[in-house]
Amino acid sequence: MLGMNLINLVWPMMAATSLTLAVIFLFVWSRLRSQRDYLAFAVFAICVCAYTLGELFLMRAGSPGQYSDVLRLMMFVVAIGEISLAAFIRWHLKGGRAWLFWSICVLRAIGIPINFVSEGNLVF
What we know:
By secondary structure, this protein is mainly alpha-helical. It is about 85% helix and about 0% strand.
């Protein structure tokens, strides 16, 4: 029983921390519109928050169908998070190759609709 109470406490705290970071970086980006890296990091932090809440919903799924639906939505969040993290690395750290960044974007953009229309999960 203590474990579930701890999960009920820790997971929302992790989501709130990520959301706080997202709000801070969105505020900074609203002041410095030319700095796209702040926006990319804010989107990534929002994705981390959504993923954390998705994990909490997965733990509480009542059926395999509910679990599968939540997992599909989480894979959408993961795709957006990966693209925004790649953008942050590319813009803020000036790292990586342009072709690698664009291949991440294109492959993830192709994978999102396939994940929703296929019977299974594309990740697995």
